[in-house]
């Protein structure tokens, strides 16, 4: 029994830097709907946080490419590729309005 808490503590020390990323599910709680709703809530929060971080990095990449727009040899294809990748990621998250905004920016 002590071993389980030791493993859980080790996982928490390795993965819980700023967010609570580890959840303990005991066998007695497997049928507890409240526990599962908490797990799903945490999971969706972490997925959205990861998605937000990914989009921030892509926006930074777009800004870098846009900053080089006036330089000779600027490549529209790489700009288009990053913007379309962002739009497709929004589509995969069912965020259609954000995706449409990006496609309208590309069309302008």
Automatic annotation (TrEMBL):
Recorded GO CC terms: cytosol; TRAPPII protein complex
Domain TRAPPC10/Trs130 N-terminal: 3-108
Any Gene Ontology biological process: early endosome to Golgi transport
Listed PANTHER family: EPILEPSY HOLOPROSENCEPHALY CANDIDATE 1/TMEM1, TRAFFICKING PROTEIN PARTICLE COMPLEX SUBUNIT 10
Protein name: TRAPPC10/Trs130 N-terminal domain-containing protein
